Amino acid sequence: MFSQFANSVVSETAFSVLARAEKLEATGKDVIRLEIGDSPFASATPALLAGSDAILADECHYVSSKGIDELRREAASYVSREHGVRVDEDNILVGNGAKIFQQLFCELFLDPGDGALVFSPFFPTYSANIARRGGRLVTSKLSQQNKFRPSLADVKCFLEQDDSPRAVFLNSPHNPTGGVTTEEDVADLCSLILDRDDVFLFSDEPYDQMSWSGGHVSPLAHPDMLERCVAVYTMSKSYSMSGWRVGFAASSTQNIEKLSVLANTSFSCVSPFSQIAAAAALREGNIERDERMHVFKERVERFASALQNIEGVKCLVPDGAFYVFPDVSEYCTRYGITSHGLAMYLLEAADSKVGVSCLGGEAFGEDGYGYIRMSCAESADRLRVAAEFLEMHLKDSAQVKKFVADNPPYRAMRL
Ligand SMILES: Cc1ncc(COP(=O)(O)O)c(C=O)c1O
């Protein structure tokens, strides 16, 4: 009854684990919520004020598909100021978050059969959006040994050997691994792309304010990349505005013109009150944002260090974003359980009163297998309790083995 595409698509695991965690909370269980990549802070204060005024002023009707001028100007000055590339409002398209631009980018550049290189593990909706256009997902594995930095050798190989290389997806700082693409990596990647005249870069930058070991480097700032790159930003993460659904893309005016036609045929426009709120946050919310980023950085470092002390867990202190991505494959092998199974054990079965909600790395493609992703979205105290919880319950072999025996789908077929 459904199309082959519809039958092939699954929704983000984070949202199904979130629903499960909420169900358990409703029964009275204390769940430490580390599954979803949402900010624990309230929306940026200027956004709350400007957004509520805008609703009362009835800024609640259709507006331009490109976005309101006020936000496009603020977004252009944000990209110019923060990332060192001179753009103006004609280089900006507003969308309802960052995610929608995956679809629009694929519609802009991919024809059926075209290859799109994705560093893996990867944000789960990339594959659906590439498939939506009949594109071919080609993966390049990120490894913990290389601090989850992209392999330029794989990019070269893709560009030289794929039948129809057309797009590269880069996400730095990276979800789920916390890896950061260095300035040198970005320069090399851009040079490889610029050597071709028909390959385009999707630069997914929702965590641009969360590069912990140095400034964020956007490929947009590399000479001549504006034509060849669509860089994507969101209000969801560092401005804590995930439910307002606002993000924006920056690229050449030619790309933005065409993207805005595609946007028009898809979501028409983004709610004007959300856009007014976003403009206020970009204009007036940066001191508050930076204070919050500081808190995030400390939490991420402390939590990762605590996990490093657990026997059998291999964990890097992430260079960016607010996710910690420990290798738990030793436990998967020991108990014959998948990493998703291990995550579900921590949520459901390790303890009847308390649970830790996180995601198995396979939620981000098979290269994530053997890892779990934990977002540092709870308080420092709760994160400390979560680390202690893991330390205590990962070694409870009787309990884990019983969980696997009771839940055959979580039985590991490999490792
Ligand atoms: C890499 C990446 N891209 C896109 C998104 C989607 O963000 P938004 O809420 O702005 O649509 C996320 C959110 O977690 C993300 O991690």
Structural account:
The chain has helices at 4-8, 13-26, 45-56, 69-83, 100-109, 125-132, 152-161, 183-194, 253-266, 272-284, 286-308, 329-335, 339-349, 380-394, 397-406, and strands at residues 30-33, 92-95, 115-120, 136-141, 165-171, 200-204, 229-234, 247-250, 323-324, 354-357, 359-360, 372-375. The protein is α/β, with parallel strands linked by helices and 415 residues long. The protein folds into 2 domains: 4-33 and 288-394, Aspartate Aminotransferase, domain 1; 45-285, Aspartate Aminotransferase, domain 2. The protein has a 7-stranded mixed sheet, sandwiched between helices. Strand 3, helix 6 and strand 4 (136-141) form a beta-alpha-beta unit. Helix 11 runs parallel beside helix 14. The model has no long low-confidence stretch (mean pLDDT 96).
Task: Give the ordered list of helices and strands.
Answer: HHEHHEHEHEHEHEEEHHHEHHEEEHH
| Form type | globular
- The name of the CATH architecture of the largest domain is 3-Layer(aba) Sandwich
Number of strands: 12
**Rg from C-alpha positions?**
21 Å
The count of helical stretches stands at 15
Q: What number of structural domains do the residues give?
A: 2
Low-confidence stretches: none
Helix content: 40-55%
**Class by helix and strand content?**
alpha/beta
Compose a concise summary of this entry.
The chain is α/β, with parallel strands linked by helices. The chain has helices spanning 4-8, 13-26, 45-56, 69-83, 100-109, 125-132, 152-161, 183-194, 253-266, 272-284, 286-308, 329-335, 339-349, 380-394, 397-406; strands at residues 30-33, 92-95, 115-120, 136-141, 165-171, 200-204, 229-234, 247-250, 323-324, 354-357, 359-360, 372-375. The chain has two domains: 4-33 and 288-394, Aspartate Aminotransferase, domain 1 (Alpha-Beta Complex); 45-285, 3-Layer(aba) Sandwich (Aspartate Aminotransferase, domain 2).
